Amino acid sequence: SQQGEEDPQALSIQEGENATMNCSYKTSINNLQWYRQNSGRGLVHLILIRSNEREKHSGRLRVTLDTSKKSSSLLITASRAADTASYFCATDAGEYGNKLVFGAGTILRVKS
Amino acid sequence: DAGITQSPRYKITETGRQVTLMCHQTWSHSYMFWYRQDLGHGLRLIYYSAAADITDKGEVPDGYVVSRSKTENFPLTLESATRSQTSVYFCASSGSWALRGTDTQYFGPGTRLTVL
């Protein structure tokens, strides 16, 4: 069963707009990660936020984490056509062993 | 710097045949993982390994076998392939034995397997 559930399932925006994706999870976590997958490729790690952090930035990415609501959001600012991809959140579910549980993902399409 | 590679990239086989998917990483990462990706299910963990000769089941292990005799290799075998095992398979690795769920995973390019 999936720990993380992304919302929306699909998102279509114009280049230059911001894109926000949300992730909800069920159990306590040590950290939450976001990954990107371009069509036909493997996943690429974007950012990791620990359970004691509330916000983290990396370039045009901003991730927030609300452990009381068991939710996270990924904001991509000033989107580009190259940001078109699927985005997944992944949680460790508090387990030892570096195992991650992935959500079903959000498909982002950025139109130029 | 090869990183993590998978072979073959594409495979077509028939029901009942044995198939082995290969995964090789050059980082000497402790952890290695096998996932399958299907529409509507995201990535689901099949098996993982914390070190050579240490493997454990993930969420969907039935019908699969793994081994890890060397740190750098983690082959996945479908002993008798079924149509429900048609999927895209990803191998991943991550570094540290000591870090508790704080390490990122690095993914291979995937193997697209079709079982006829």
C-alpha Rg of chain B (nearest Å): 13 Å
| Oligomeric organization of the protein chains | heterodimer
Order of helices and strands of chain B: EEEEEEEEEEE
What count of helical segments of chain B does DSSP give? 0
Task: Please outline the major beta sheet of chain A.
Answer: 6 strands, mixed
Query: How far apart are the termini of chain B?
Result: 36 Å
Q: Helix-strand pattern of chain A, N to C? A: EEEEEEEEEEE
Q: Report the uncertain regions of chain B.
A: none
- Mean pLDDT across the residues of chain B is 91
Low-confidence stretches of chain A: none
Mind explaining what this structure looks like?
The complex is a heterodimer of chains A (112) and B (116). With 112 residues, chain A is mainly beta. Chain A has no helices and eleven strands. In chain A, the strands form two sheets. In chain A, strands 2, 4, 5, 9, 10 and 11 form a six-stranded mixed beta sheet that branches. Chain A has a five-stranded antiparallel beta sheet with strand order 1-3-8-7-6, with no helix packed on it. The radius of gyration of chain A is 13 Å and the shape is globular. Chain B is mainly beta and 116 residues long. In chain B, the strands form two sheets. In chain B, strands 2, 4, 5, 6, 9, 10 and 11 form a seven-stranded mixed beta sheet that branches. In chain B, strands 1-3-8-7 form a four-stranded antiparallel beta sheet, with no helix packed on it. The mean pLDDT of chain B is 91. The interface between A and B is medium-sized, with 30 and 30 residues.
